[in-house]
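Explain this protein:
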Amino acid sequence: MEKHRLRLLTLNAWGLKYIAKHRKARLRWIANQLASSDYDVVALQEVWVEEDWLYIDEQCRLEFPYRRLFRSGIVAGPGLAILSKIPINNSFLYRFPINGRPSAFFRGDWLVGKSIAITILEPLTPETPPIALLNSHMHAPYASSGDAAYSTHRACQAWDMAKLVKTLKQANYAVIQVGDLNSKPGSLPYKLFTIEGGLADSWEILKGDSNPLSEEIARMHPGDQILKAGVTCNSVFNTWHPHRKPHEACRLDYVLIDSQTLTPVSAAVRFTEKLPPPISCSASDHFAFAVDLVVNKRDVTNHHDDHSSEELFSLYRETHEEISWYLRETIPFQANWRKYHFFISIILVIAIHIGITFASQRQAWSSVLLSLASTLIAVSGVINGLIWGFGVRSESPMSKYSISSDRKSISSDNTETRSVISSLASVKSKALNTFKCSKHVDPEETKPRKYDEKSKDSYEAKAAYMAIR
């Protein structure tokens, strides 16, 4: 490792037990490759099987003296791991308050407890600041739009991450955010990372104007998609995605940096080769992403944002609209169908128990089948009833939610609704404060002013009003 220089790699290892094919062989190949690599820090996601981690830990012990697997969640934990040549000063895990639903157990996001693993590394030299590495794997999308897209979940997760990033930057850490963020460039979470969090995309810094747009990526050769566009997911060159369309190839794995303390020197997509025969498959369903960074000398001056008030207002308005849509459409839908399922289950269980009496007189074995059906209906009904009662139902109708900037009037008795409303209140408060600072509004003023089309400040006033109304 050169003085002031850091080589970093991030990889989603696809370590799903029983589901990911050739998991054991792939994870062992990855471990062997890392053990002979020259990276200073490796951030892994989806390391969910203890056996795989123990092998990685053993093989990389000499190359990476400092290692950590973050354990949490209900089943296997978030699957986040760090391998480092740099001494680890401290580390902790932040679990996202909103992260899928328990009823979607077949998707696994809620069960593993998606999180951010924050690792504080010692300074490379006495002249450089300590490094704060944030490794995360955000909620996956299961559709391009609608409820199954989980776009609001990722937006809330990105908002929380941006707050952590700003706190660490203000404490004069060199902040690096890595991982499979399940968000395309230009998406709302991406804008929250770069505008609200103030981070820069290391790939875009290096590529600049030559970085292709999404429309151009769709027309590229698959090889150029990797070399020129940094595509890490859904590439046809990946053996796990051979039938993907060219426009589906995308960049989901990032190294986002505080450009005031870190400078990228080179970046490339890695682990694109296949495992040797007889397996001959890609190492994961994602390619890895590697970056060489220079850590600048310590600067205790205040960090400043290069984004205009118009950009901030636009971002807050988009975030507000995303969360408001979720509260208006998804929460009532989730609450209603679970409520109906719960009460219909009660009626069906009663009806089945009455029917068992008559069915047993005709065919004795039919009472056994009816008893099993009654049990399944009762169990599923109770589970959905609990989710409705403690997960998505609120104390008052959605139309009566009163959300203030200081959060004092938030009313909710559940996890999902409370987390979403908390994020919405934070967005509104941030928008109002930004508007005050940019326009030097009297601190005593707490209500957003309506805009006047004839006013010279109508654009900013309109943006502020739309963001916090």
Summary: The CA atoms of residues 266 and 292 lie 5 Å apart. The first strand starts at residue 5 and ends at 15.
